[in-house]
Amino acid sequence: MQISPARYRTIAIGALVALSAIIVTGAAVRLTNSGLGCDDWPNCNSRSLIDVSSKHAAIEQVNRLFTGIVGVAVIAAVLGSIWRVPRRRDLTWLSVWLVIGVVANAVLGGISVLVDLHPIAVQGHMLLSMMLITAGTILVRRAGEPDGVPRRRTVTQPTERLVWLHFVIVSIAIVTGTVVTGAGPHAGDENAERLDIAIPAAARLHGVTVLTAIAIALLIAWRLRSVASDRRALQTPLARWIGVGLAQAALGYIQYFSDVPELLVGIHVLGATLVMIATTFLLLDTRRAVPDEAVARPDGLPSRPAVV
Questions:
Q1: Of 93, 114, 148, which residue sits at a domain end?
Q2: 288 by DSSP, 3-state: which?
Q3: pLDDT one-digit tens code per residue, 201-225
Q4: Is the same domain home to 136 and 160?
Q5: Given CB 3.0 to 4.6 Å as the disulfide criterion, which of 20, 230, 275, 289 pairs with 145?
Q6: Final residue before a domain boundary, out of 148, 182, 216
């Protein structure tokens, strides 16, 4: 069996969509207090593998079903990388890491249930999911790159450093967001333990990291005004990030001052996933698979950036 590069990229996009969907369905489990709807793992309970006798159990079972769909999607990415013509080792390794990550996250999800949704376990579950989003985004980008063309830096080094700093700060903002979740009211079960942190303090910490990420994005935008090559490479992905980032920040403040209603929290979780995708694409756009003649120095003259 053989598949084309374009078909494989479609498979990679499908894997990324599935990885994003499982984050949203996982949030639905937590927001409906269904985290212990199934109090065992891999069985739903001590009596049966599948149990939909209650609303909470049914919601948790749907989430576990989505885990199976995600598993199929990432396995398809591995098989597709093998059948892709021409075959590329980087795509195979990336897809294999997705499978490993999904299996690890399924195990961590099971541990979360067995420790009665301890917030540290739930945090780890979410953070690993975000790592998988980053890996899935990289797979989509790599799958769309031409074969045999080396990746080269397409921006000046100061801009690349700023984008890396932005990626790190966004990652920290994701972590602080899970701290807010761990201290907040939506634990996944009414009796689940909460982090011993004041919610306002956790929210302020998260807000500072989010605003810092936005400030760095605006600093990058200001720099793009004076460096033409950087502007060509990053203007579009940066504009997308600023749009998504500002919307996510506004939603965060709205949900906080409206007593964190479940629907807004669910949308905020989806927004965090989109922010992570946009952040990863922005970083990836600092180095692209482009031929020599497509890369220019800031003064417009041809250049040969270092191959990576």
A1: 148
A2: strand
A3: 999 999 999 999 999 999 999 999 9
A4: no
A5: 289
A6: 148
